[in-house]
Every structure is written in structure tokens, then in C-alpha cells.
Design brief:
- The structure holds 3 protein chains of 3 kinds.
- By secondary structure, chain A is an all-alpha fold.
- Chain A contains 3 helices and no strands.
- In chain A, helix 2 packs antiparallel against helix 3.
- Chain A is elongated and about 55 Å long.
- Among the domains of chain B are: about 90 residues, NADH-ubiquinone/plastoquinone oxidoreductase chain 6, subunit NuoJ (Four Helix Bundle (Hemerythrin (Met), subunit A), Up-down Bundle); about 40 residues.
- Chain B has 6 helices and no strands.
- The radius of gyration of chain B is 22 Å and the shape is globular.
- Classes of the chains: A mainly alpha, B mainly alpha, C mainly alpha.
- At the B-C interface, helix 4 of B face helix 24 of C.
Chain lengths: ~100, ~190, ~625
């Protein structure tokens, strides 16, 4: 048959962890965005695994919508990145630290 | 159960896992952002393979077309536009303890998630009644199944995400617009 | 009777209100006669009430005005008790007050605060009457405080003078310290007997344990020493001479300062229960009389001599109360009112004639210029020195006879005081009226003039009373005398015993001898003039340095403690605590602010760590 769901779930969890670590550690805004995409993909993988195991197509529908939203998010997010970093020389998010207490 | 797994499925799984993890680590480690985008494509491709292996054919296709085809391309556009293909000095993190805490936090989270899943027997919940106990369909049947679900059960979500897309487009246009400041120094794109 | 009694009390109040409301519209003379008139009416009504009381048997009437306090078990009516003691006090208070009001019309003539003076004076008489006529301790206390307040106002009448203002303050504060004693006594009595009305307390007096009775007596004594200027609270009285002379005569000689003695006499049934209490009272009285007499010997201001003389004479009264001779104390109180008011008013006349000079060294030889003041003052002088047949010979003699039976030591002290009294009064008389004229520079060469009739009439009346006052209680008349009249008010007196006739005659001879000795010594020394350094003592002149003692032990430490409070406690402790809270809030806020570092990655890290915590919690719950 197919590989047990557990393996895919663990894989997704590890992918999520890698994405999270990258998000926290990288300073470039663009790399951070890519890490967010990694995390989203991990979630998608989890949903599809459950859809397969429980024979519920709703899981796949959810993944569909997640992809739509991810696309919209990237659009707007990169638009913001462009607007902010247009005049700066680097894309380090550490420079955007003026809203502090 | 392992006994019921066919060797082909295992090979597919291993391949997908390799692609996924290799690409993920690559995003983190390469210095050139363009190379990072390419690693991302590798990961996305691996995820698509995993989708196919789990009877989500349509989604695998959408993954390639939308994610790898559109989103990553968008990334590349922005990288080129901003001109950040220089290297990013990684050696010292200006924020004290960020790396350590991040590692600890992430490890604990992932370990905890896996433990939780293991304790709750990986997959819980009743089998869905919509497929009447059968496994999910593959191929064109999968498209039909998915389409039925989206246009009947999840219709509202569909409409909402459609509106979201329009809003996103408008927002992106607004954001990227040049400000109307009489600044002759401004360099044209 | 009830109406008469109420009117006695209210007439001075009416006078007060009328002057208060119409004062600016009335002329000076009208204010003066109105003020005097109401008090004179009170006096007449007191006489009427006296005769009405005699017709009743027993001699006691309670007049209920209205129910004042009624809370839980505490019931304090606004009621008057008319009995021999209170009617006697009413008579001489209103009589002397009326005379002094009349005198004030002349003495205060031309003062810009003339109306205010009569306002306060009438209010004072009202308070004093309230004090003596009340039938319960609380109402007495209201009067007690009222007289203290009026005394404060009147002593600092010339308030733009620093000395007067601080003298008023001193008087009030010393009174207040004594008032603590009276309040504690009230609390004790209420807690033990459940009532504050005199007659009811006396009925229940038997239920008090000796310790409580002694405590009550001692606290009452504290109150009395404050009001009546005895040791240890007497230093305010000499300073109170800053007030106008009529005030000194009325308040600080005849009436307010006797309030303490009155209170002790009124509470005689309680005093009867406590031997240590009465002994203390006697010792306080005797010692005060002696100490004050020594101080009077070296004073250079005419009014200060009289002030210390007052303290000394009241010491005699307190001594009499201590040995149980209550009637004798009241007898001396009345005769003292006569001759001390006479002496004060006379000295006021002298001061008035010398344009305000009060220093004895600048007087002398006034005999021929003051034809009415001189003889009346002479009579006052002879009276206080104890020369028979004037009033004080009988009253002081009565007291000394009783003291002789009680304690020979105190008797010796009393006799020495009598000697000193004769001495210092003679010194005063000689320096003021006899000898060389030393006042010419004060009067700018003019002759001093006698006072107007409004001032000399009271002098004549008081002189006459001093002469015949002894009739009130001659020692061989027992029933129709003052003591016979008053004795029912005092309940059972445990220690009074009468000396034999021979002993009484012997004591009388001693009294006369002492008086004559004092007079002759003083005349021989002081007719030579006021500068006699051999007979002056700065220790005595400075009141045995009593004021300095209080300043060093109480005044300065308190001031230092207050300064400490201002310098240290206020800025460091109180401000420190309040500001400290503010500062600590700000510091903790500053610390918390650092969480908002502005770095997105740190916010994301916080989110992940939070997620880790939640996951760990869930695992722990499941596992």
C-alpha cells in the first residue's frame, strides 16, 4: 500500500521546523519570505496526508485555498518589500527597528 | 503498517523527502539569494511528488504551476529589482542569543508536535462519509472530486478567496506605485 | 424658678447677640451700658433665685432646658442644677462681672475695638455661668472651653502686639493640656457609672474602686491646674497680663481661674473616695501658694505681682479643697474675688493715670494725685495681707485653721506664704503710692489725674465688700453662715474636724503677727526706693526659671522633632514613598519597554517560544 501517514507527518513537522528556524535566523527579508513558504508547504503536506488517510477530500480543498492565500500574501508582501527597500541598499529587516519602546 | 507498504512507495517517499529537506536546508545555507530561490523550487518539487504519492494529483499540478511557476518567479523578479544578489554577512547575529533561543524553541516545538502526534496514534478522526469508505480517487476523478467539494461544500470560501485575490492585486499596485514627489534624482525602473 | 434660672444664663448671651448684630450702629456708650446692663440684670435675677432657693427644701432644683445628646446609653441633657454652690458662684460671678463691665466703659474708652471687647466680655460671662450652672460634666465642659476661648480672645486683644498674641496662645495651650485631664476624668466616670450627670454620679459614687476614684481625682486635678494656674501649668497666667486690665481683673482673678476650684468642689463626693488624691491636691495647692508668693516678691511689673499673687491665693483655695475645707475654699474664693478685683482695677486706675506705665520703678508718690484710688487700694492691700477685720483675715484664717488640723507641715507652708503675701503686697503699695515721684518722665511733667466715676465706683463698691466680706463666714457662727449654706452641696466630708476655740484663737494671733511682720519689713526696706539689689533675686524674678525648664524639656525637643520631621521624614520617607512608587513604576515600565525592541525577528522568536510552551504543556497533559 502506501507509506504510513506517520512518516509524512514527521517529514512535514521537520520541514516546518527548518522553515521556522530560517525565519528567525535570517536577516534578509526575501529569505525570510521563502522560509514562510517552506512552512506553508509543510502545512499543505500535512493536510494532504490527512486527506489521504481519512479519505476526506476537504483536506485537499483546504490546501487549494491555502495556496490561493499564499499567492495573495506573496504578492502583497513583496510589494511591501519593494516599497520599503526601494531606496535602501540592503534588505536587512534589522534596519526597520524604529518602532521601539 | 510497514508490512503493508510496497517498496515503490518507500522509494517515492525517500525521494520526495530528500528533495524537500535538501531544498529546505539549501534555502537556509546558500549565500546567493537567487540560489536560495532555486533551492526553494527543489523543495516545492519534492512536495509535489509527495502530493502525487498521496492521490492529490490536481494539487500537485497546481503546486508546480502556481508555487514554483508564479510565486518563485515573483521572488526572482524582486531579487533582481532590488539588486540584492550580493552576499549577506551571516557571521555574527547582532541580536544576542537569537540563534540559540531560536534553535531551542524550534527543536522543542517540533519534538513536541511529533510526540503529540505519536501519542494520539498519528491520525484520529472518523473516516469521511463523502467517499463512502473508498479511498480518494486519482487522476481525473480526483479533479472531479475536488471540484465538487470546492463548488458545493466550500463555495463561500472559494468566493472569499476570489475577492481576496482582487484585493491583493489592487494592494500590490498601490504599494509599488511611485510617489508623486518632484524628485529628479529618482531612478526609473 | 426655672425661668429665672434660664434668664440668668441667657441674659449675657442676649447682650452678646445684640452687640454682635447691631454693633456698628451703636455708639460706644450704648454698647457699654448694654453690656453692663444685661450682666446687672443677671445679678439681680441671681439674687431672686437665691431667695427662691432658700424657700425650697432641700435646696436643690434641676432645670431641664432640652435634651441634648441621646446616643445609645449616653444621655446628656442640657440642664441646669441650682443648688447652694452654683447659686453662690452665680451671685459673685455676675456681681463682680457687672462691676467690671462698668469699669471697662471708662477704661476702654476711645479704643477702636471697644465693641469687640464688650462682645467677648459678655460671651465670657455666659460661658462662666454655663460652667457653674450645668448639671452635668459635658455642659460644664462646654462652659469650660468657652471661658478658655474668651480668655484667649481677650488676652490677645491687642493682637498686633507680638507679646499679646503669643500670650493668648500660651494661655490657650496650657488650658488645653489641662483639658485632657478633664476629658479623661469624664471618660473614666462614664465608663464606670454610665452617666455624666452630677447627681447621678454622686449616687453611684460608691461603685467606684479606690484606684479609679484616685485616677479620676488626679485627672480632674490636672484639668483644674490648667484652668486655675497651679503647678505645673501656671506659667500662662503672668503672660496673660498682656490683656487689658479689666480682663485681668475679671477673668484672671475673679472668675475663670476659680473654675478649677469650683470643679473640684463640685466633685467632692468623688474626692471623698480617694485619700491619695486629696493629699496630692493639698500638696499641689500648698506648694503652688508658696512658690508663687516667692516669685511675686521680685517682680517689677505691677500686674505681674498681682498675677502671681492670684496664683498664690488660688493655691490656698486648692489647699483647702485638699484638706476637705470646701466651704473655706469657696469663702476665700469670694473674698479673693472682692479684693483681687479691687487691686487689679485699682492698678488699672494707676496705669490709666500714668498713660499706660506698668513698671513699679517708674511710679511712686501717687498718693496725693489719686484721691479715690489710693484709699480703696489701701483697703485692698490691708485685706490681702490678712489684717483684721477685713475679709481675707477671716477667709485665709479659716483655711489655715483647717490645714493646721490636717498637717502641721502644710500649715507652716501656708503661714510662710501669708508672710510673703504681706511682704510683697506692702512692697507693691509702697513703691506705687509712697516715696518719691519717679513718674514725671512718663507723664511728660503733667500731674496724673484720677479716673472717671465709671472706674472709681466699682473700686468703692469692692472696697466696701472687702471690709465687710468677713461677715459671710465668721468662725463662731455656724448655721446661718456661708459654710452652713454650702455644706449640703458637698456631701459627706470625711476628714473635717474643728479645732478647739483656744487653738483657733492662737492661730488667729499667729496670722495677725505674720501679717504685721510682713508689712513692717517691706515698708522699712522699700520706702528707700525701688533699687535694692540685696533684696532682689533674679531667680525669683524669672519665675524659678520655670519657663526655661519647660522650653528645654518640652519646647525644644518638640521643635527639634518637628524639624526632623520636616527635614527628614517629609522629603525622604513620605515623599520618598510616594515618589518611590512613581519611580519604581517608571523603572519597571522602562524595563518592560525593552521587550519592544523594534526587531521583527525577536517578535517572531517570542511567538515561537510561546508556541513551544504551549506544545510542552499539551504534551505534559497527554503524557
Amino acid at each position: 500500500m502506501n507509506v504510513p501517514a506517520a512518516w509524512y507527518l514527521i517529514l512535514a513537522a521537520v520541514l516546518f521546523g527548518v522553515g521556522a528556524f530560517g525565519l528567525l535566523t535570517k536577516r534578509s527579508a526575501l529569505i525570510m519570505f521563502m522560509c514562510v513558504e517552506l512552512m506553508l508547504n509543510a502545512v499543505n503536506l500535512t493536510f494532504v496526508t490527512f486527506a489521504r488517510t481519512l479519505s476526506d477530500v476537504g483536506g485537499q480543498a483546504t490546501v487549494f485555498f491555502v495556496m490561493v492565500v499564499a499567492a495573495a500574501e506573496v504578492t502583497v508582501g513583496l510589494g511591501i518589500v519593494v516599497a520599503v527597500f526601494r531606496r535602501r541598499s540592503s534588505t536587512s529587516v534589522d534596519e526597520l527597528s524604529e518602532m521601539k519602546g | 503498517m510497514l508490512a503493508a507498504t510496497s517498496p515503490g512507495a518507500i522509494v517515492v517517499f525517500v525521494a520526495a523527502a530528500a528533495l524537500i529537506l535538501g531544498g529546505a536546508v539549501g534555502v537556509l545555507t546558500v549565500k546567493n539569494p537567487v540560489h536560495a530561490a532555486l533551492s526553494l523550487i527543489m523543495t516545492l518539487f519534492g512536495v509535489a511528488v509527495a502530493f502525487v504519492a498521496q492521490s492529490a494529483d490536481f494539487l500537485a499540478a497546481v503546486q508546480i504551476i502556481v508555487y514554483a511557476g508564479a510565486i518563485v518567479v515573483l521572488f526572482l523578479f524582486v531579487i533582481m529589482f532590488l539588486g540584492v544578489d550580493r552576499r549577506d554577512s551571516v557571521r555574527l547575529d547582532p541580536l544576542v542569543g537569537q540563534r540559540a533561543f531560536a534553535a531551542v524553541g524550534v527543536l522543542i516545538t517540533v519534538a513536541g508536535l511529533i510526540t503529540l502526534m505519536a501519542r494520539s496514534h498519528w491520525v484520529t478522526g472518523a473516516l469521511s462519509v463523502s467517499t463512502k469508505g473508498h479511498a480518494l480517487a486519482t487522476g481525473s476523478q480526483n479533479v472531479k472530486q475536488l471540484g465538487t467539494a470546492i463548488f458545493t461544500t466550500y463555495l463561500f470560501a472559494f468566493e472569499a478567496t476570489a475577492a481576496l485575490l482582487i484585493i491583493a492585486v489592487v494592494g500590490a499596485v498601490m504599494l509599488a506605485r511611485r510617489e508623486r514627489v518632484a524628485d529628479p534624482e529618482e531612478v526609473d525602473v | 424658678m426655672a425661668h429665672v434660672a434660664t434668664l440668668i444664663l441667657l441674659m449675657p448671651l442676649v447682650g452678646f447677640l445684640l452687640v454682635l448684630l447691631n454693633g456698628p450702629h451703636l455708639k460706644e456708650k450704648q454698647v457699654g451700658y448694654l453690656g453692663t446692663g444685661v450682666v446687672a440684670v443677671s445679678f439681680v435675677l441671681s439674687v431672686v433665685a437665691f431667695f427662691l432657693l432658700l424657700n425650697r427644701s432641700p435646696h436643690q432644683v434641676t432645670v431641664n432646658l432640652f435634651s441634648w445628646i441621646s446616643v445609645g446609653t449616653l444621655h446628656v441633657p442640657a440642664a441646669l442644677l441650682i443648688d447652694p454652690l452654683s447659686i453662690t458662684m452665680c451671685l459673685f460671678v455676675t456681681g463682680i462681672s457687672a462691676l467690671i463691665h462698668l469699669y471697662s466703659i471708662g477704661y476702654m474708652h476711645g479704643e477702636k475695638d471697644f465693641r469687640k471687647f464688650f462682645l467677648y466680655l459678655n460671651l465670657f460671662v455666659f460661658s462662666m455661668l454655663l460652667l457653674v450652672m450645668a448639671n452635668n460634666l459635658v455642659l460644664t465642659f462646654v462652659g469650660w472651653e468657652g471661658v478658655g476661648l474668651c480668655s484667649y480672645w481677650l488676652v490677645s486683644f491687642y493682637f498686633d502686639r507680638d507679646a499679646a498674641a503669643s500670650a493668648g496662645k500660651k494661655a490657650f495651650i496650657y488650658n488645653r493640656v489641662g483639658d485632657v485631664g478633664m476629658l479623661v476624668a469624664m471618660f473614666l466616670l462614664f465608663s464606670r457609672t454610665g452617666t455624666l450627670t452630677y447627681l447621678t454620679i454622686f449616687d453611684k459614687a460608691g461603685t467606684l474602686t479606690p484606684t479609679v476614684a484616685t485616677l479620676v481625682v488626679l485627672t480632674l486635678l490636672l484639668g483644674a491646674t490648667g484652668k486655675s494656674a497651679q503647678i505645673p501649668l501656671f506659667n500662662w497666667l503672668p503672660d496673660a497680663m498682656e490683656g487689658p486690665t479689666p480682663v485681668s481683673a475679671l477673668i484672671h482673678a475673679a472668675t475663670m481661674v476659680t473654675a478649677g476650684v469650683y470643679l473640684l468642689c463640685r466633685m467632692s463626693p468623688i474626692l471623698a473616695l480617694s485619700v491619695p488624691g486629696r493629699t496630692t491636691i493639698a500638696i499641689v495647692g500648698g506648694v503652688t501658694a508658696f512658690v508663687a508668693a516667692t516669685i511675686a516678691c521680685s517682680q517689677k511689673d505691677i500686674k505681674k505681682v498681682l498675677a502671681f499673687s492670684t496664683v498664690s491665693q488660688i493655691g490656698y483655695m486648692v489647699l483647702a479643697v485638699g484638706v476637705g475645707a470646701y466651704s473655706a475654699a469657696i469663702f476665700l474664693m469670694i473674698s479673693h474675688a472682692f479684693f483681687k478685683a479691687l487691686l487689679f482695677l485699682g492698678s488699672g486706675s494707676v496705669i490709666h493715670s500714668l498713660n499706660g506705665e506698668q513698671d513699679l520703678r517708674k511710679m511712686g508718690g501717687l498718693q496725693k494725685f489719686l484721691p479715690l484710688t489710693f484709699p480703696t487700694f489701701l483697703i485692698g492691700w490691708l485685706t490681702i495681707s490678712g489684717v483684721p477685720p477685713f475679709a481675707a483675715f477671716w477667709s485665709k484664717g479659716d483655711i489655715l485653721a483647717n490645714v493646721f488640723e490636717y498637717s502641721k507641715l502644710l500649715w507652716i507652708l501656708g503661714v510662710l506664704t501669708a508672710l510673703l503675701t504681706a511682704y510683697y503686697m506692702s512692697r507693691l503699695f509702697v513703691l506705687t503710692f509712697r516715696g518719691n515721684e519717679r513718674f514725671r518722665e512718663v507723664t511728660a511733667g503733667h500731674d496724673p489725674h484720677e479716673s472717671p466715676w465709671v472706674m472709681t465706683t466699682p473700686l468703692v463698691v469692692l472696697a466696701a465688700l472687702s471690709v465687710v466680706g468677713g461677715i459671710l463666714d465668721l468662725p463662731w457662727i455656724h448655721h446661718n453662715s456661708l459654710s452652713g449654706f454650702l455644706t449640703p452641696s458637698f456631701g459627706l466630708i470625711p476628714t473635717l474636724s474643728h479645732a478647739s476655740g483656744l487653738a483657733q484663737t492662737g492661730l488667729a494671733v499667729v496670722d495677725v503677727a505674720v501679717a504685721v511682720l510682713g508689712i513692717m519689713v517691706a515698708i522699712s526696706i522699700w520706702r528707700k526706693g525701688p533699687d535694692q539689689p540685696r533684696y532682689e533675686s533674679s531667680f525669683l524674678e524669672h519665675v524659678w526659671h520655670w519657663d526655661d525648664f519647660y522650653d528645654a524639656t518640652i519646647g525644644r525637643p518638640l521643635t527639634a522633632a518637628s524639624q526632623f520631621g520636616d527635614d527628614v521624614v517629609e522629603p525622604k520617607v513620605i515623599d520618598g514613598a510616594v515618589n518611590g512608587i512613581a519611580v519604581s513604576v517608571r523603572r519597571s515600565a522602562d524595563g518592560l519597554r525593552k521587550v519592544q525592541s523594534g526587531f521583527v525577528r525577536q517578535y517572531a522568536l517570542a511567538t515561537v517560544l510561546g508556541l513551544a510552551v504551549i506544545v510542552v504543556y499539551l504534551v505534559a497533559r497527554v503524557g
